[in-house]
Amino acid sequence: MRIPDIAPGAKVLAFGHYQPATVVTNDDLAKTMDTNDEWIQSRVGIKERRIASAGESVEDMAVQAGGKALAASGLSPADVDLVIVATCTLETQIPNAAAVVAHRLGITSPGAFDVNAACAGFCYALATASAAVRGGSARHVLVIGAEKLSQWVDWTDRSVAVIFADGAGAAVVGPSDEPRIGPVVWGSAGDKFEAIAIRDRHDFLRQEGQTVFRWATTALHPVAKEACERAGVDPSELAAFVPHQANLRIIETIARKLGADKAVVARDIVHAGNTSAASIPLALSRMLERGEVRTGDLALVLGFGAGLTYAAQVIEIP
Amino acid sequence: MAATEQEILAGLGKIINEITGIPASEVTPEKSFVDDLDIDSLSMVEIAVAAQDEFGVEIPDDQLKNLKTVKDVLTFIQG
């Protein structure tokens, strides 16, 4: 037995993102439910979010984001041999999204599977992609986080409807002469499985806000610090901290406890809402576009969500 | 020796000031968190977490919702 062409490291080659066209502001929501702009901004930090049209699916958004990342990487579809879609909001369970997304992008017969680690999904998928490249199972991996939360939200439940949104972000992962994606620190807290859940096939997404808030603001900064430590990177060396865009108050509390003083902290939630597995690549891609992060910068990504699940790793910006 | 009610009140006032910006002098036993101090449910979680660090008493979420006034928290922490 042998393992061919093991790469010493893996790296992100490019990012891409897609957001649906429709912008829904807080004032728009206030017209149909008992809420207002001040209430939403003070609780979750969101000013507006993007919502997909009725005919626009998770797969549609994944194709858009994945296509942009692929184009930005300079690779052709034929170079990609593994496609991973992180999502928890498909309209149906069968088939998975990855195979049809790959097909629509012209990627012929790649390995294709979905990852459901909810809002931590992108970090799980990125770790899996990095391991596949370093282990010789794949050469180039297209990793996509894509979500249509709007189809699982009760639009009369203001505790949930003001938070969640739709979108997609993607990264192309390939071999590298040295590690440019750090070791993942991942885990779960299955005792809190009820904190964020769709309880049956007729239900909507429910969230125990206080439970999630307490967990996120107390349990996750050690995970973030451990990811830095395992990558051999001091938090002071980070140019960016990109946590899952769950809630601005959670983001700012974790950032404060992490103490990455020079890092720009992603606040994409203000204009994009909480897009679950899409939020980290969406935020990173938009930060790159705006010039807030540059090639060679070190960024810490931290995903966390339903399960409860979490994962973090340090990556170098392509 | 356990902290006195005055010491817990002073500590709670400091915590609430750090989290919400409300002057510690306004944190008096009869005040309602929601009606008088305008503190929202997420800030209450932050206060509970900080109070646990300060006083070593855990205030679980299912108990937290029953603590309506500053006095309720003082009583809870004193056990």
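qc> Residues 31 and 37 of chain B are 7 Å apart (CA to CA).
qc> done
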